[in-house]
Known about the structure:
This protein is of the alpha/beta class and 433 residues long. Helices cover 56% and strands 16% of the residues. The chain has three domains: 9-112, Response regulator (Rossmann fold), CATH 3.40.50.2300; 150-259; 265-433, Histidine kinase-like ATPase, C-terminal domain (Heat Shock Protein 90, 2-Layer Sandwich). It has a five-stranded parallel sheet with strand order 2-1-3-4-5, sandwiched between helices. A hairpin with a 5-residue loop joins β9 and β10 (360-367). The longest helix is centred in the middle third of the chain and has 97 residues, at 114-210. It is rod-shaped, with a radius of gyration of 42 Å.
Amino acid sequence: xxxxxxxxxxxxxxxxxxxxTVMSEALTDAGYDVAAALxxxxxxxxxxxxxxxxxxxxxxxxxxxxxxxxxxxxxxPDAADIPVIFMTALSDAASKVKAFDLGAVDYVTKPFQxxxxxxxxxxxxxxxxxxxxxxxxxxxxxxxxTNTLETLKQSQLQLIQQEKxxxxxxxxxxxxxxxxxxxxxxxxxxxxxxxYVQDILELLxxxxxHFPDPGDDIGDYIEEVDLEYIREDLPxxxxxxxxxxxxxxxxxxxxxxxxxxxxxRKMPYDLRDGMESTLMILKHRLKATEDRPKIQVMxxxxxxxxxxxxxxxxxxxxxxxxxxxxxxxxxxxxGRSFEEIExxxxxxxxxxxxxxxQQSVVIRIGDNGTGMPAAIQAQIFDHFTTKPLGxxxxxxxxxxxxxxxxxxxxTIEVHSELNQxxxxxxxxxxxxx
Length: 433
Ligand SMILES: Nc1ncnc2c1ncn2[C@@H]1O[C@H](COP(=O)(O)OP(=O)(O)O)[C@@H](O)[C@H]1O
Ligand SMILES: [Mg+2]
């Protein structure tokens, strides 16, 4: 420190005015601000108005003595860490020990050696300043560490998610690809098979016309296999096989769209494709069960341009939100009969639109399920779940938040009312900011 002029407010407490004067003058001359008190009580009152940086405290005083004053100071959280130096005529060791026990930092004996008092005061003031700046540094470091830890947790989450996703995505895309090949044979052979069947049936018909009486052996066999039925059923069978291959093809297309292999750059993607393929994957959870009719999905796609994004991440968000909506609907169905649910059906609302300022696309996913109270809404984006162990991980929304906010510079908001339903609103900027 270059500036060696001492600073700080020193409170001197002594019942002898002469002592007060001597001490005050010495301190003032040395450059300190000085406050004086003639009793312990007054000292305690004064510190309520202004906290000194150091207190010089006489031990023997009428009323509450120095020890008691010190005790009360230490009990006051605002004053507890102000250094106290006792001034004492006592030279017995017991008093000194007691002084230190009470939290004093030092003592000076009367009659005063001015230089010694000033040296001790200056040392303790410096110590206090050092302690304070150390405490500030520790607080700042702790904050830094807390922030780092938070960042670390976030990136860990992202890593897990990416890892899981790329592994799963690769697998799914691979399987979808593998399925497409044999599916191609089946679909490709269905047309000729249908023609062959038509030809054979026609041939049979002609045989029967030319040889109405084929003999017992063949006649019995025709009855045994129920030729009439085969004739009727075979073409239907082929039609349903075609229907089946069409569906497998759609599923495989969805799987591939859903698990889009995102590179490290965003790419143009039709959100409608993403939503539809996610719904396809969730189809088994939407359809009717013994306990409830199928969940109605109301869609309003009003934004049909492509959006620059990481498709598989966005699909992951859709998946999380839709799965949560289905969970909330199922929860809401507890205790309601099939008929009751039919009268007030489970619904999921999906919409996309251009934002009013035309800068982003707004995607809404809502449900008329349980809804949630404000206290839960406040926590849902932090690793939090209300679902039983094994059912909920509490990761869905925190990952979704990260994907939308961190990876896409968008926003995600929740609007929910207990027993009414929940709506999530996502905004993705159309231009990178
Ligand atoms: N659509 C919704 N309706 C009601 N509550 C919801 C809805 N979506 C999310 N929540 C609440 O937010 C919590 C966190 O969701 P999420 O992060 O996906 O974790 P998880 O589904 O594993 O519990 C859920 O446990 C639930 O309490
Ligand atoms: Mg979830």
